[in-house]
Specification:
Elements lengths: L1 E8 L6 E9 L4 E6 L6 H9 L6 E5 L5 E4 L11 H11 L4 H14 L15 H13 L5 E5 L7 H16 L3 E5 L12 E6 L2 E4 L12 E7 L23 E7 L3 H9 L6 E7 L6 E2 L7
């Protein structure tokens, strides 16, 4: 996806919110957008998602499957939580049974299964946000745009969204996000930008060790001389040895996505052991050929 000379203002004579924005968004990339309140971050994300059109300039290369999660999800729709997701699934071309199953799975993943039959208008803000996240992931988008999507989620759901983002990138998608937590997905970000004075400028990446929480050591083997797949989820530390062994350390939030990427690589890697980083012994992996 490519932006060239993009600007946005509201009204024919309104002040410019953004102007002269050039940006290339490759596939399989996690991109963070920063900036002070009111600088135009949400405007940029709405342009990327196709919700707003630029007042000048061009946006090209947007894929057919784009999803967007706003900070506040509008619940003024005549559906239950599960009914809304199943309806969107059918719009995306899923068969009714598949749409219902996928809707149920997304609600369960984000801890909202108990509210499947609740009308959207009666959901709490936190549960509404879980539905908003679930609907964005329903069609496995090629471009996922998250505007403070973690706001209102409980700790477990925030962790699941972290993991879901890493999974989408590992699957080849582009994810662009804004979040107030400067350490959100630290170490996994491929590029960062700051909205400043109507322009978009590069921003420094957070150091991988800025990511809080435990780290996981994954030991894997493959045929001698096999290189590791490029751009593994979570930006793991470690390399493959000439004898076909690898020891990779990654934040725990990214460990499942990293395992999936290794197992689905061509050729696939055999996972021999998964342990807490720094532990003396660990558990053998239960998966060795398929995710």
């Amino acid at each position: 996806m490519r932006l060239r000379g993009v600007g946005r203002r509201y009204g024919l004579a309104g002040p410019w919110v953004l102007r002269g924005v050039d940006l290339d968004l490759p596939a399989r990339a996690l991109v963070r957008v920063e900036g002070a309140n009111g600088t135009g971050k949400s405007t940029l994300l709405r342009l990327l998602a196709g919700i707003d059109a630029p007042s000048e300039g061009r946006i090209t290369g947007r894929g057919p499957r784009t999803a967007y999660v706003p900070e506040r999800f509008s619940a003024a729709l005549p559906f239950t939580a599960a009914g809304y997701l199943a309806h969107l699934g059918r719009i995306h071309g899923l068969r009714p049974a598949d749409a219902a199953a996928r809707a149920s799975g997304r609600l369960t993943r984000f801890g909202a299964a108990a509210h499947a039959g609740t009308p959207l208008a009666e959901l709490s803000k936190g549960t509404s946000q879980k539905v908003a996240v679930a609907q964005a992931l329903l069609a496995e988008p090629e471009l996922l745009v998250l505007d403070e999507a973690w706001t209102g989620l409980d700790t477990e759901a925030r962790g699941e969204l972290d993991l879901a983002v890493v999974e989408r990138v590992a699957a080849g998608a582009t994810v662009v996000y804004v979040d107030h937590d400067p350490h959100r997905l630290a170490g996994a970000v491929d590029a960062a930008y700051r909205v400043e004075g109507q322009a978009l400028v590069p921003a420094p990446l957070a150091a991988p060790d800025a990511a809080p929480g435990p780290r996981i050591l994954i030991e894997a083997t493959c045929a001698p001389g096999t290189p590791l797949p490029a751009r593994l989820p979570g930006a793991p530390e470690g390399t493959a040895a000439p004898d076909g062994t690898a020891r990779l350390t990654v934040p725990a939030a990214h460990s499942d996505a990293l395992l999936g990427a290794l197992l689905t690589a061509r050729p696939p890697w055999h996972i021999s052991q998964v342990t807490a980083a720094g532990a003396r012994a660990g558990r053998p992996a239960s998966r060795d050929g398929a995710p």
